Amino acid sequence: MTDTLRTSLRDSRAARWSALMIVSFTMLCGYFVTDVASPLKPMIEQQLGWTSAQYGFFTGAYAWFNVFLAMLVFGGIILDKKGARFAGLLSGVLMLVGCAMKYGAFHNPDLNRTTLLGVPAQVMIASLGFALFGVGLEICGITATKVIARWFKGYEIALAMGLQVSTARIGTALALGLGAPIAAYFHSVASPIFVGVVLLALGLVAYVFYCLMDRRLDASEGALTQSEEPEEAFRMADIADILKNRGFWYISVLCALFYSAVFPFLKYAPDLMVQKYGVKESLAGLIPSVLPFATIPLTVVFGSYYDRKGKGASIMLLGSLLLVGVHLVFAVPLLDHWLVALAATIMLGVGFSLVPAAMWPSVPKLIPQKQLGTAYALIFWMQNCIALFSVPYLIGWVLDSFCITGTRTVEGASSPAYDYTLPMAIFMGFSVLAVVFALLLKAEDRRKSIGLELPCYKK
Questions:
Q1: Each residue of 132-149: pLDDT tens digit?
Q2: How far apart are CA 352 and CA 311, in angstroms?
Q3: Where does 310-390 have alpha helices with state H?
Q4: Domains in the chain and their CATH numbers?
Q5: Which pTM was predicted?
Q6: What is the pLDDT of residues 258-270, one digit of tens each?
Q7: Who contacts 386 (Cβ-Cβ below 8 Å, separation ≥6)?
Q8: Over 42-104, what HEC string results?
């Protein structure tokens, strides 16, 4: 075993960081597509005639197949059974095909003249494409996380996961900041989606190069890498073992609640900037784009701190507390200057850095390596059910049902005017619940000595 460890490719600093860069770039491309429609909401309403409820329907479609067909859970099983090479390539193809469907729908306004399953065909086809893309990106996410856990176990695992998250956030920042200007320049809301198609093709090519590195890693550790971490066939008992773990439930619910206060907020944040803070529609994504840019260095800093000093449960608690304060600021009607929005977004970025920096590296402390893909899939499935499916539609329904205050006219086109006080209060409620489960996780760590407050890096 000692000889295997000495000759493992992951002992090469250059090799493991190169692997990290490749999978992180693939995730960046996926995150760009995830959020590129967010700054387009006012334009979509004006150019395509969608309502907020239809936009929420489309946004929540990301999680359809993951939630109702349990595709994400099957993806975790495939990852544990078939390995990261197969799962990663499969996810890349699904993302590319799904985004191409979404582009086709946005590019064809004639689809609005017909309905599909009682929904305007354009909305439904775009939603189905986004749902297929969502399967691919979620599988890609758990694959990237398990890849990092394999390459960096015993090394800088929290720092590496922080860097992967930070790199992916660049995709979010680019989507929020450039989506509206690209659409305005080409006079089409479909043009930013086409940029996403191109990026996903590049990300798929990049992952092919990772597969070559992964083969070399297998060769360096033995034909099946069974001298160190055997990859056992999936058993139903693995899921049962995971679900018996109380700490796993606490971190899963914390994840779902925390991201419910962040990801759906990003979908509506550009419209919030227009409606409450008076920002021009073509610039509406700029302030929300500060959030991922703020997370890029901070997630790395907090991840490195967790590697060397520990305090993972405390870091998650602090991040959840920050979210409560941030959404309280967004909910107060009188705080309507754009500088307030900018400051609150920066603080949201700090909170959004703290929790992921500690959450994802903590899961391997709760779950054995052979079950890690399935465990991450179950966490992501819960996140999909609440944060990515239910909450976006809920916010769209609340806006249409309770928050319309009149109409707005921009360049001759009319769209509803909204009061975002109630949606922001809902987001604050999710943040408060996240604090509760962060406290429960911290108590469970003390009770069972899980090690969440201990460093990850073993010198």
A1: 999 999 899 989 988 998
A2: 17
A3: 312-331, 338-366, 372-383
A4: 12-218+235-448 (1.20.1250.20)
A5: 0.74
A6: 999 998 998 899 8
A7: 256, 257, 260
A8: HHHHHHCCCCHHHHHHHHHHHHHHHHHCCHHHHHHHHHHHHCHHHHHHHHHHHHHHHHHHHHH
